[in-house]
Amino acid sequence: MPSGYVVGIDLGTTNSTVAYAPLGEETPTVELLPIPQLIDADTIEARPQLPSFLYIAENDPSAPHVDLPWEADAKFIVGEYARGRAAEAPMRVVAAAKSWLCYSRVDRHAVILPWGAPSEVPQVSPVKASQLFLAHLAGAWNAHFPEHPLAEQKIVLTVPASFDASARELTREAAHQAGLPQDLILLEEPQAAVYAWVADRGDGWRRMFKVGDQVLVMDVGGGTTDFTVIRAVDRDGELELERVAVGNHILAGGDNMDLALAHLAAGQFQQEGHNLDAWQSVSLWHACRAAKETIFGPKPPKQYPLSILGRGKKLIGGTVSTKLDAATAAKTLLEGFFPLSGIEKRPVANRASGFREIGLPFESDPVITHHAAAFLAAHGDGPDEPLRPTHILFNGGVFKATAFRERLGEVLANWFPEQAPAELEGNEDLDFAVARGAAFYGLAKEGRGVRIRGGTARSYYIGIETAGLAIPGVPRPLRALCVVPFGMEEGTDCEVPGEPLALVVGEPAHFRFFGSVVRKKDVPGTILDRWDEDELTETDSLETTLEATLDMEENLTPVRFRSHVTELGVLELRCDSTRHPESWKLEFHVRQDAEET
């Protein structure tokens, strides 16, 4: 076996963790990396989690002087101290950078975070914030293992299953800028949770399943919710696992719950004569994160005190306080996010105002059970035949609360009374399951464990502009041509049948790409004239100029398409001219189940 380590990194919306295992041992043990970080103004302490919060200390005279083992006088402070400052100085703290990383309506390289910060506060881009989190983890590793630099280890970095190709590529870019190796592997977070569960059972997991069993992985983290289905299949007489469904990216999770508590607390403040301004409201939101964790903890108090900095002339330097009733707060979250709703319920799409802020596109309906019902319906055999899971595996920090797991078990039992999905117990510490599972996956890649198969988790399409008479001010209709089917395995290729299409060469052109997690039966060559918004999602487009040869008389040439998914998860779309010997290649990353390089 090679020397060194396999390292699993969970770059979380709320917390980040690192797990590792030696590659050269017969029975390697997965350990957690202690991560040094600033705890308060005078204390650096190693902890197993790094809160994914970034405090911008630059130009702040009150900022502490921070000397980390790998960096002197840090201007960007990551971790526990930054999270604490979020409730006191939210205009200087970047939170939910991971959610911004997948928001295609803003430039992820632009310096926009903290969103809405005053002009005197320096800002960073979502990519830069992610880089700083990963650079801190890399520094912690290199300080702990100076003889085994992180850049020389086998790295598995996790991403949400619903991250599209662009968000994954930006994550990979941030990782490379942070000093991680070029050949790092990207793994879906729900799959990492399954790897952790399987690894804890060894070969015993096969006795718990039969062919056709389906595991619904419900991953509710701080800022996002992901649904994935893993099916037990027979492959050459042996039981294996295959990923068969992935949900859309849902911007709802623990942060919404914190905001719900903040709304409850703001009402109490108002009744007590304190009208909070915008930044106080943000501070209260961050303060309610700790309230939620305590109220749903093992020994919840009857009341939880909340204090935020005062803003009035008489309160400068002081605080205003109130107390949350724990029972009321718990009921607010349980009934608000996990109600006993029927499987026919769907997320409510509120009519959007004609004017709206450019901030993150949070779900208008944050009810998790509504989104779960929509996911099962979308991946079933018809409108009246939702996908029926036989087992459920919980993942994400939200499900550390027993009350939420029990309520979802009750909801699923009501949806499927003939066979209620059985909970797969075992990932007791949900804070570390994803990082541990990523490390186990790295071992599996070396032939040391079971692999989850699945190919691409989306069908992919290219946009084809139709020919015809033009209408002033109206764009030509667009059709979508399927070039990669759902589940296309890495290392395979296919010809895209159909009549030749015109390719623009020799001048700037705009190429549009689409993906679908629900249209699983489309084959290469399928053409869609129209589609619903929830069927196809546009990924980042590509603007480029394809070189034209001297013997081409015009900038349009008929081509046929060949698609190939490399072993590294890169889609190569070959455009072969039918009139000339030339061929052009377009690339974008599509690996949705495991790795990218």
How would you describe this protein?
- The chain contains 11 helices and 30 strands.
- Helix 5 (189-201) crosses helix 11 (433-445), helix 6 crosses helix 7 and helix 6 packs across helix 8.
- The protein is an alpha+beta fold.
- The two termini are 22 Å apart.
- Strands 1, 2, 3, 6, 10 and 11 form a 6-stranded mixed beta sheet that branches. It has a 6-stranded mixed beta sheet with strand order 18-17-12-13-14-19, sandwiched between helices. The chain has a 5-stranded antiparallel beta sheet with strand order 25-21-20-24-26, with no helix packed on it.
- The model is unreliable at 590-597 (pLDDT under 50).
- It folds into 4 domains: 5-183, Nucleotidyltransferase, domain 5; 206-252 and 342-348 and 363-428 and 446-452, Nucleotidyltransferase, domain 5 (2-Layer Sandwich); 254-337, Actin, Chain A, domain 4 (Alpha-Beta Complex); 459-589, no CATH class.
- The protein is globular and about 75 Å long.
- The chain is 24% helix and 28% strand.
List keywords for this structure.
24% helix, Actin, Chain A, domain 4, 6-stranded mixed β-sheet, Nucleotidyltransferase, domain 5, alpha+beta
